[in-house]
Specification:
- By secondary structure, the chain is an all-alpha fold.
- The chain folds into 2 domains: 2-82, no CATH class; 107-196.
- Helix content is 76%, strand content 0%.
- It has helices spanning 2-18, 26-30, 34-44, 48-59, 68-82, 85-93, 107-150, 153-196.
Amino acid sequence: MIRLFLALSATIGFGLFLVSCNTLSKEECVAADWRVIGESDGAAGYEPQQRFAAHAKSCERVKIVPDQTIWFQGYQTGLVRYCTPLSGLARGQAGSGYANVCPPETAPGFLRGFNLGAKQYGLQQRLTSMQNDYSSKEISIDELSDKLRDAKDEERSELRRRIEDLEDDMHDIRRDQRDVQDDLDRVNEDVEWFQRNPNVALPAPGY
């Protein structure tokens, strides 16, 4: 973590170049408690160089220079709350990213939770995408069926073929949904177990 602190000074100029949004208002810069702000940033898992650079850029408007030392002390305190297995799980479940900020002693536990939560989130997103695709094809079939009623004889064969293709696609989607749902059910069980035993590695399948 000491090397991380030293790296803040070396990268601040480049970080300022990258920052385009204000993280603090002018009033917040004037009244800032940099330890509290740092703790909040650490608890949220922000990448430290970029986050501190963003604060420095925001406070340039009122000619205030953030206290880097105090901020980083707060950041380390906040990071203790962030780098836990259950925090990792919650971040993964929310579809959040991870900025590789946890130290070696807590990163494995955080990542166990994060990867499990991310897997659950990914499967949920797949199911949602599949259902949207299924619903879209249903609408297309309804539209083609309306056209079929008024179609000329030479158009009917092509419309029926398109409807049949869509029905085949919908059948495939339902089959794939069942497979993904089975995977999600297993992951949900793992999540429940993990929530009861956050400091223990997941048992092998079939426990």
